[in-house]
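User: For my dataset I need records formatted as: sequence, then structure tokens, nothing else. Please produce one.
Assistant:
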Amino acid sequence: MHQIATMQYFVVMIDYGRRGREAIVDPEITRREVISRIVSGEYKNISFIHEVADSSVEDVTADILAEAALPEIGASGTDLQASHFDHVRDLRKHETADGPMFSEAITS
């Protein structure tokens, strides 16, 4: 049996206003790369994005623009350190006269 390679690529139409439009077509660019280029600002003023797979064309503009608008959430070292300081501050606020909870938080 022969396997036929399926062709998939994206067409990104950029609108430059009076200067015209440009269709960016690169068979090697992935969906993730299109999103990355939108997030970085490389692709602006997008008219549409089409996904071409085999002999079908699908308008994926709304889906890709929505994905590009979502922030990536990841805890950085700074965020983790700030969370620790907030926790210690909260422990200090709730310290009782019976014993210091603050010193326990520092040693753990």
